[in-house]
Amino acid sequence: MASRTLRLRILHSNDIHSHFEQMPSIAAAFKELRGSAGEEHTLTLDVGDHIDRVRIETEGSGGSANLAIMNETGYDAVTIGNNEGLTLSQDSLNLLYGSEARFTVLCSNLLEATSGQIPRWGKAYHIIEKAGIKVGLIGVTAYFPDFYQLLGWDIKEPLSITSELVRELRPQVDLIVVLSHLGLRNDQRMADETQGIDLILGGHTHHLLEEPLRMGETYVCAAGKFGQYFGVVDIEIDAHSRQKVKVSASIHEASSYPADAHIAELVDRYRSSSEQVLSRQVAYLEQPLSAEWYEEAPLGNLLAAGIRRWTHADIAIVNAGQLLGGLEMGAVSMGRLLQICPSPINPCRMLLTGERIWKALEESRIPEFMEKPLYGFGFRGKVLGTLNVDGMRVEYDASAPAYSKIKRVWIGSEQLVMEKEYVVGTIDMFTFGIGFLSLSEGTEIEYILPNFIRDVIREELQETGAIQASQVKRWAHVDINDSSKNH
Question: Which InterPro entries match (predicted)?
C-alpha cells in the first residue's frame, strides 16, 4: 500500500521596505495561492524589513500602516529586520507588535537588556501545525550589537542561537524553517554548520534566488527586495516516516497579479492620514535654504552645524549627498524634511586625527568621489557629494591636482595639526567604510540613537541664529601659488 503524503505550501516575502505600491498585488497573490493549496495547507511568512521610514505611509503612521496591511494580507509569522529593530524605539516596537500584530513575531536572538528576556510580543521559536505537519519556526535578525545596545537591547550572535534552537526543536517537529534576516553568506554558513534545518528563508542582503540553493538536506530561498518578487515553497512529506519526499521552490513577480482592492484602499487611507500628520509645521523660513551636492550650500552647512551641536564636537563633517533638495521660503513641514532627507542615518561622534580629516577633505574635491553613486547602509540619496563642515574653515585651490587641493585648514583660530586628535561629529554611515574611507578610521566611536539627521535639521532650524550662520562660507578658494601645508 502506497504511503500517504502530507502537503505544505509556504509563501514568503522579505525586504519590502515599505514599497506600498507592491503590497496589494502581493496580498492578491497570497490569497490566490492560499486558495489553490487550501488554507490549512498554507503558511505565510515575512523575513523582515517590511517597515522602512523612508515612506510617508510608514513615517506618518509610526509603522501602523505596515502592521495593518500585514494583518490583512494574512501573515502567520514574521521576524524583524534591522529597519524595524534599529529605526524604531522599544516603545514603538512594543506598541506595534504588542498591540497591533495579529501574527507571531519571532525574535530568537533579540532580548531586552533590562530583563534579559525575549520581549513580551516576541517568541524565541514557534511550533505551528498545518495539515498534520508540525513546523518549528525560528527567526533571527542581523547582528549589530553596538547599535542595539544603545536602544536597550541585548542582541545575541544569531548562528549559535539558531543551532541551539534547532537541537531543541528537532525532536518535536517534522520541519524546521528559519526566517533569517542575516544575509546570504550567513544563510549558507548556517546551512553548512547546522544540521537539521529543512528550509532557510533569507533576507537582508536583498538577494534573489530564482532556484533554491540546496546544501545537504537544507534548502535556502530568498525573494529579492522591495516587494518586486515573493517566494513559494511546496513541500511534501511522508505521513509515516515524516521525511521530506519532495521540495519545489520558485519566485514570482508581484506585478503579474492584479491588486487586491481592499489592500489598495487601505494603502490609500493610510497615505492620506499620514500626509495630514506630516503636514505639521516645524519651522518658518524668511528666506530659502538651498542644497547642492557638489559645492557648499546653506542647508548643508546648517546640517553640519546641527550635527556638531547634537554631538558636542569640535567640528562636524557630513556629505552633501544626504540632502535631496533645499527648503523653500515659508512653512517647513515634517513631510518636507522627510522628502529632502529620507535616510535613516544617525549622528555619531568619534576621535579623528588631523591627517585623516585632511585626506577626507581632499577626496571631497575629487569628482570621482563627489559623483559616486551609493546605496545601502541606510543611505537613501543618489550620490556621495562633497563634504559640508562646521567648526572649521578650509582653504583650497580647485585647479590644483587631486590630493593637493587643500592648502590650509583652520579649527577656530588655529591651523589643523596632522597628529592631533579632534572630536568629530559625523554620521554612522561613514563608520562602515562607505564614502570617505579615512572617516571610518576614527576611534572611541559613539552612536547617537534613535534620532535621524532629519531630526537634527528640524531642531537646528529652531536654533536662534542658525539660519544666518549657515550663510557663512566654510570653504574659501585661494591662489594655487599659496602652497603651504600644515604639519
Answer: 5'-Nucleotdase_C, 5'-Nucleotdase_C_sf, 5_nucleotidase/apyrase, Calcineurin-like_PHP, Metallo-depent_PP-like
